[in-house]
Amino acid sequence: MTTDILIEPLTEDTFAVFGEVLEARGEPAKIINQGKCGRYHDLAALDFAGEEARAGISLFLSEKRTLPYRLEMVERHPLGSQAFLPMTQEPFLVIVCPDEAGKPGRPRAFVTAPGQGVNFYRNTWHGVLTPLSDPGLFAVVDRIGDGDNLEEFWFETPYRVLKRT
Question: Under the GO molecular function aspect, what terms does this record hold (predicted)?
Answer without folding.
Answer: ureidoglycolate hydrolase activity; ureidoglycolate lyase activity
